[in-house]
Design goal:
By secondary structure, this protein is an alpha/beta fold. Helix content is about 35%, strand content about 20%. The protein has a six-stranded mixed sheet. Strands 10, 12, 14, 15, 16 and 18 form a six-stranded mixed sheet that branches. Strands 4-5-21 form a three-stranded antiparallel sheet. Strand 4 (about 105) and strand 5 (about 110) form a beta hairpin.
């Protein structure tokens, strides 16, 4: 391991140069800008590091998945898979950037650019960890696979199809997730899971066109109609009122509760960051962390109806639309929850409310007692000196697709500093963390192979 870690230390300039090359190739999935070019670049970069690579495709119009693979000579029985994405968020608004977002400018300990952290920075640490083993030992501690998709930032619409089609090719014993945060005290956060998501749109219509608001005495207002329906979904404490919504939700285990208690969360700093004085339902302490990791939500993401421009307009709108995201927790099936929502509206006399399903995705959580967790913890300790365990991210990713199709534990750990401004102008990656994380990935491969 000594030589491997030294190789990482001695070749960090090369890591930065390759990350700059990746950043300089725009790959904005939302606009289909540079996707094909970036996939080919990533594939070439894998090969340059000694990793076999193939560009996999589904039908036309679907971004390719870049596959990478190295078989281990001494340990061909175990396989670790790295999941990453080569696409990035749009860089707009450009005028808020200090540099060209696709320049990869280095200033001090920071490399700036769209994708510098999310997710090209994460990807490069993993490629370089594998390269370090190949260059110093001529072998890798276990088989290694890379699945690098190009539609993550638009919702990973096709990753499950890829996983099913190439199930055999992607077969593995454990997965390292695409992102991983380093907290404000420079501790890597080992994430055990992610919440699921059900995204819907509800709509109400009444007159065929907008009407004079004096007619509100005789024409029903669809905005009120929609609000009446919405009020039946959730109470003011945040509890969802749909029949059966919580039927499959399990309580936290003792181990989970202990992990949650140990997880740092700075309530004062968090409230300051968002300019709020209290949390939903006046939650405090452990309840805040339990909610973030394990409470389903019913959130209004947007509400559109009538006149919202400057000044007053007395109008009775013809329609009202709301977009709602429900976060789901393990065991909740998005299809079942959608059916429950439909039934709820019918039962409560809201059959006239239109309902459109955008997206459904189940939650995923790795058992904290899985041996892979201990291996990753030891790697984090060896490279960073400490770590934090996060029972579940409050957000959503296609982790369940990986866990269920490949049947492998999934953990997130990476190099992204918590205030790296991902998805925002002046996104950056910290160079010290890129180096440390590359070494951490080396330890993960090594620990995994010795288990
Ligand atoms: Zn992202």
């Amino acid at each position: 391991m000594k030589d491997v870690l030294r190789y990482v230390r001695d070749n960090s300039d090369d890591l930065i140069a390759d990350l700059q090359r990746l950043i300089r190739q725009p790959s904005v999935s939302a606009k289909n800008e540079g996707i094909e070019e970036c996939a080919l670049l990533v594939s070439r970069m894998l090969k340059k590091s000694g990793i076999n690579s193939q560009v996999l495709r589904l039908n036309k119009g679907v971004a390719p998945v870049v596959f990478g693979e190295v078989m281990s000579k001494k340990n061909p029985k175990q396989t670790l898979l790295f999941y990453n994405h080569y696409d990035v968020q749009p860089a707009e608004p450009f005028d808020l950037w200090d540099d060209d977002p696709f320049s990869g400018t280095v200033r001090g300990n920071r490399i700036f650019g769209r994708g510098s952290a999310d997710d090209k920075g994460e990807l490069i640490t993993r490629i370089k960890a594998v390269e370090a083993f190949l260059k110093t030992t001529g072998d890798v501690p276990c088989n290694i696979k890379f699945v690098i998709e190009g539609e993550e930032e638009t919702g990973s619409a096709n990753i499950e199809r890829y996983l099913k089609k190439f199930k055999k090719k992607f077969e593995c014993d454990a997965v390292i997730w695409e992102f991983g945060y380093v907290d404000s005290k420079d501790r890597p956060v080992i994430g055990l899971g992610m919440k699921g998501l059900l995204y819907v749109e509800l709509s109400a219509r009444e007159p065929v066109r907008d009407a004079h608001s004096s007619l509100a005495v005789i024409i029903k207002n669809p905005a009120w109609r929609l609000i009446d329906a919405l009020k039946t979904l959730r109470d003011s404490s945040g509890r969802i009122l749909i029949d059966g919504w919580y039927d499959e939700v399990e309580k936290f285990s003792k181990t989970d509760l202990k992990l949650l208690a140990d997880e740092p969360f700075d309530e004062v700093a968090f409230k300051k960051e968002y300019g709020i004085s209290e949390f939903v339902n006046s939650k405090k302490g452990l309840d805040v962390k339990k909610a973030l990791a394990g409470d389903p939500t019913c959130n209004i993401a947007g509400f559109l109806s009538g006149y919202t421009q400057q000044g007053a307009k007395t109008v009775l709108p013809s329609s009202a639309t709301v977009k709602i995201d429900f976060r789901l927790v393990p065991k909740m099936d998005p299809k079942k929850q959608f059916a429950r929502l439909q039934k709820h509206l019918r039962k409560n006399g809201f059959s006239d409310i239109g309902i459109k399903l955008y997206h459904g995705e189940a939650a995923s959580r790795t058992d904290p007692s899985d041996p892979f967790v201990a291996q990753v913890k030891a790697a984090a300790k060896a490279s960073f000196g400490s770590y934090v365990i996060n029972v579940s991210n409050a957000g959503t990713g296609p982790m369940h697709s990986f866990a269920s199709v490949l049947g492998a534990p999934c953990l997130s750990i990476g190099s992204t500093y918590i205030f790296s401004r991902i998805h925002s102008p002046n996104e950056f990656a910290r160079i010290d963390l890129l180096k440390k994380t590359t070494q951490c990935m080396c330890h993960i491969l090594n620990n995994f192979s010795h288990a």
